[in-house]
Design goal:
alpha/beta; eight-stranded mixed sheet
């Protein structure tokens, strides 16, 4: 037998194991019994310390290591921003109540949620300044032990990536470990491949599919959040809906029965309805969170939309008396490629695909931030109506009507130098960047945040 047939024989034995036993991705655990008070949910993560007059929410966008480094720079700046309250010094970092992350941003959010200040000691070496993409490629192409597994229809590239993150980044941590930490609530966002529905890894979402989030690896959630279509594969969940006695929230029941909710609330409930039927949808295939929302902001907006009233959310989180609600939106945006405007040639498929995804994300980001800002007037009215006795409205400091909203956008457009803006926007969205580019992103994030007039106003008002 010649060398070539021998090679084919060896590969056949590797790829087609005896009995065709396929390797399988780890299944999410079923939930034995639904308990509305159980698990990793925002209402169970209310901080016992900090300024209870302030509700501070931070969102980290997608964009690979570029986004992870940019959001890390914001964390560093918040750590170094000090407030004087009641005669004591506080770090603004410790005032964060919730961080919502997408794709690359989800890694920074999850790592900080798990390890707190340790993030500033080792996250650079473990993730930001590591060639993650190169190491994953080596696992796929140059590790014969993985070739058989990757041939399986039940195991693919994102499952391999999840194993790598679990071992080398998140140290085997699960959502039970995340729930035990004293820091902010962390939302890791992914997208259902079939319906385009955004899914955040919280027990609220897992209640719908009767699954126990507590044993689910944080690394696997981040792998789902960063599973860029085509380049990576979906992360799959088993749907156990109907097996745990889950009681749908009122807005969902009302929508399914009466269909008389406001448009956005109806659309949200209609998107969730398929998940309630495990016979119709026995599996949930999750891809990059940026497909549904690249800012991570929809996770916050949809909670208010679902309840129909922001005061309902504040009461659930025991924040009825909050006076300031602030959003810091960290957006590691890309630059729209205009070079094809100068060419008479028909753009190739790669250019069209890149343009399609960039335009969709860019336009949707604008609409999402606009929706947030447009909601402030209604939310102000709802809070005042919920706190002030009829005919006794007062907007004096500390009164029932004292409520103010802040939006701080941290994005490359805030940089004055056009060349610098272009440099950052054109950095690749892969999971590999030179160390010097990581440092430049961190420094740029700090400058943009500290020079923001909205951020300066927030800090001044908090003193």
């Amino acid at each position: 037998m010649g060398p070539l047939p021998k090679l084919f024989l060896i590969l056949s034995l590797l790829i087609f194991p005896a009995g065709c036993t396929y390797y399988h991705y780890p299944l999410n655990a079923p939930l034995e019994r639904y308990d509305p008070d159980f698990g990793y949910k925002p209402k169970n993560m209310t901080k016992s310390t900090g300024d209870r007059d302030l509700l501070l929410m931070v969102t980290f966008s997608g964009g690979g290591t570029r986004a992870a480094a940019f959001s890390y720079g914001v964390l560093e700046a918040l750590r170094d921003t000090r407030l004087l309250k009641g005669g004591r010094e506080l770090r603004l970092l410790d005032e964060i109540d919730l961080i919502s992350g997408v794709s690359g941003g989800s890694f920074t959010a999850a790592y900080y949620g798990l390890f707190g200040d340790r993030t500033f000691q080792d996250f650079e070496q473990k993730f930001l300044k590591k060639d993650i993409q190169g190491e994953l490629s080596s696992q796929i192409f140059f590790n014969p032990g993985n070739w058989t597994r990757l041939f399986s229809p039940y195991f693919d590239r994102s499952d391999l990536a999840a194993e790598y993150y679990d071992k080398n980044v998140f140290e085997g941590a699960t959502f039970a470990d995340l729930a035990r930490q004293p820091g902010p609530m962390i939302l890791i966002n992914a997208t259902d491949m079939v319906y385009g529905t955004r899914l955040a890894f919280t027990q609220d979402a897992f209640d719908i599919i009767c699954s126990d989030l507590s044993t689910f690896p944080v690394a696997r959630a981040c792998a789902a959040s960063s599973a860029v279509p085509i380049l990576l594969t979906p992360i799959t969940l088993k749907n156990y809906a109907g097996s745990c006695g889950f009681v749908p929230p009122a807005f969902l029941t009302k929508s399914l029965e009466a269909r008389d909710l406001p448009d956005r609330q109806f659309d949200l409930s209609n998107n969730l309805a398929p998940f309630l039927d495990s016979g119709r949808k026995p599996y949930v295939h999750l891809v990059d969170g940026g497909v549904a929302d690249n800012l991570g902001l929809r996770a916050l907006l949809e909670r208010v939309i679902a309840s129909g009233n922001i005061m309902t959310n504040l009461k659930t989180a025991k924040l009825e008396q909050v006076r300031k609600i602030a959003f810091i939106i960290v957006n590691a945006e890309t630059e729209i490629d205009t070079k094809w405007d100068q060419s008479a040639s028909i753009p190739p498929f790669a250019a069209m695909f890149d343009s399609y995804s960039s335009i969709a994300i860019f336009r949707y980001n604008i609409e999402t931030v606009a929706l947030l800002r447009e909601g402030f007037k209604q939310w102000t009215d709802e809070i005042r109506k919920g706190r002030c006795p009829e005919g006794q409205l007062s907007t004096a400091p500390g009164s029932c009507g004292d409520i103010e909203f802040y939006v701080v956008e941290v994005k490359f457009d805030a940089l004055k130098d056009p060349a610098e803006r272009t440099f950052f926007k054109r950095l690749p969205t892969s999971f590999a960047l030179p160390s010097e580019d990581v440092d430049k992103l961190r420094q740029a994030a700090r400058r943009i945040l500290e020079n923001s007039r909205d951020f300066q106003r927030l800090v001044r008002d908090l003193q």
